[in-house]
Design brief:
Helix content: 25-40%
Largest sheet: 9 strands, mixed
Distance between the termini: 34 Å
Shape: globular
Number of domains: 3
Strand content: 15-25%
Structural class: alpha/beta
CATH topology of the largest domain: TIM Barrel
CATH architecture of the largest domain: Alpha-Beta Barrel
Number of strands: 23
Bound molecules: zinc ion
């Protein structure tokens, strides 16, 4: 039997991770050959699509190891995006304009970040009442851990004032925000379309797979997008931990699903965020009261861990502050977790050196977000919250790799964008955060695939693997990462993105 001709051949540029190769062939959605163009082009047939690279580099499709995909989509289609606001008053102008555009309806602002504003303070109820007086309106901080509501929206909150609820300021933290978020939820059609928008946006960024931390009711939306053919991103889901009993009852194990949509396990919160001062620290915030909040204690987490492991599910634990990380490690030790289960710590922002040693010893994986370095360095939000010493130790990607801890990089959707995150990891404010181009790309591809147990199918360019590929605008060896763009994205050999004006 002679070799079947290839469906697609990319030739004439460096192939990431394949020394000496400058071409690859794809057949039936998988990589059929990687090697010198002279050899690979012999697989050409009359129907083969040829893509001349002209020196541009090919990378494995990026794999964002931590996103909130529906939120990313809604930011494109439904929310009033406040991430670009350069001042508090500009954020209010955007909300007022959003209210005019949808009279009588909820106005939902997302991704405000007071650390970028000259006013340097949180939005408050009185601000929103001025900007949006006649409609219910809330605006979520960039980290998703602090919501500010106007008076009309606040009427929907039934919780009494307390640690998480401040009616005067209109501030709702963590789970106290849930009622309002649900009340303002758009209809199903808008939600399914938002997932499609997230997938299109991902393809434009070179992302072919994501580990998503969805809400408990997102699975039907994913299935609708899958049926419609609008899901062009492989999605690996870590569902809210309250669904663990249901998953166990059904006997769903990690990897259940299809090549485009799989359930991996559950997500647990051990603390909040630094921006909202809810990340649990061992010593107080520099610019506010308290040491943050532990959202789970070790005995409960140990129990969850044991149950999930027995059910064949992964646990992804959100832990940012050193006090939360301590609780997570103690729970892992208590539960005697198995390294082969590949449980994950999400964010892992402020571990001590000895905590990192324990992460390595326990066989836990590190799922980190180099784009968070946008808040590190002198004058940044992290230094303000933590002081310069803790800022210099935050997000220690280099220390993680040095201990052999498997590293998966992602964005948490703040914003999604692997090249942006990698650029920050290459030139960070502090040396412990520094990665090389090769290390950063591997963590954003192979490392993320390993973290969902899909490294045999995804994450590198090798024969037999799925043809999830990105063609960059240039060869990173001859330019700086900030000049690189995504030219083409392929999912299973299918072209899902072409940059305008590019062939
Ligand atoms: Zn997250």
């Amino acid at each position: 039997m002679g070799a079947m001709p290839a469906d697609l051949i990319l030739h004439g540029g460096p192939i990431f991770g394949a020394e000496g190769a400058d071409a690859l062939a794809v057949r039936c959605g998988r990589i059929a050959a990687v090697g010198p163009a002279a050899e690979v082009l012999s697989l050409r047939g009359p129907e083969t699509v040829l893509v001349p690279l002209r020196g541009r580099a090919v990378l494995p499709g990026f794999f964002d190891a931590h996103v909130h995909f529906l939120r990313v989509g809604l930011e494109k289609t439904f929310y009033v995006d406040l991430s670009g606001a350069r001042s508090l008053s500009q954020a209010l102008e955007l909300l007022a304009a959003g209210a005019k555009a949808r009279p009588g309806e909820w106005v939902v602002g997302r991704a405000w970040d007071e650390s970028r504003w000259p006013e340097r303070r949180y939005l408050e109820r009185a601000d929103l009442d001025r900007a949006v007086p006649k409609q219910p309106c809330y605006a979520m901080r960039v980290d998703g851990h602090l919501l500010v509501a106007n008076t009309l929206a606040l009427a929907r909150c039934t919780r009494p004032d307390g640690e998480l609820v401040d009616r005067d300021l209109g501030h709702l933290r963590e789970e106290a925000a849930g009622e309002l978020v649900r009340a303002a939820r758009p209809d199903r059609e808008t939600l399914v379309e938002a997932l499609a928008a997230a997938s299109r946006h991902a393809a434009a960024l070179g992302i072919t797979a994501v580990a998503d931390m969805p809400g408990s009711d997102h699975l039907p939306l994913y299935q609708a997008a899958l049926r419609r053919g609008t899901l062009k991103t492989r999605a690996f889901l870590y569902l809210p931990v309250d669904l663990l009993p249901s998953l166990r009852a059904l006997g769903i194990e990690k990897g259940f699903g299809s090549p485009l949509l799989a359930i991996q396990g559950v997500k647990v919160f051990a603390d909040g965020s630094l921006g909202a001062r809810t990340a649990a620290l061992s010593s107080p915030y520099r610019d506010g009261k308290g040491t943050g909040q532990l959202l789970v204690e070790r005995a409960r987490l140990a129990r969850l861990w044991a149950e999930a492991e027995e059910a064949g599910l992964q646990v992804a634990v959100h832990a940012i502050g050193d006090r939360a990380i301590e609780e997570v490690l103690a729970a892992a030790e208590l539960a005697r977790i198995s390294p082969s289960a590949r449980h994950r710590i999400e964010h892992l922002e402020l571990p001590s050196a000895s905590q990192l040693d324990r992460v390595a010893a326990l066989g836990l994986l590190a799922s980190m977000q180099p784009n968070f370095l946008q808040w590190s360095g002198p004058g940044g939000m992290y230094a303000e919250r933590l002081g310069p010493e803790r800022d210099a130790a935050i997000d220690p990607h280099r220390e993680v790799l040095a201990r052999g801890i498997p590293l998966a990089l992602g964005s948490d959707g703040m914003p999604m964008g692997p090249l942006y995150g990698i650029g920050l990891a290459l030139r960070p404010p502090h040396p412990p955060q520094r990665l090389s181009w090769t290390e950063a790309v591997r963590a954003y591809t192979e490392g993320a695939a390993y973290a969902v147990g899909a490294e045999k199918e995804l994450g590198t360019i090798a024969r037999g693997k799925r043809a999830d590929l990105v063609v960059l605008s240039d060869d990173p060896a001859r330019t700086t990462p900030d000049k690189l763009q995504v030219d083409l994205t392929f999912l299973g050999g299918e072209r899902v993105y072409t940059r305008e004006g590019v062939r």
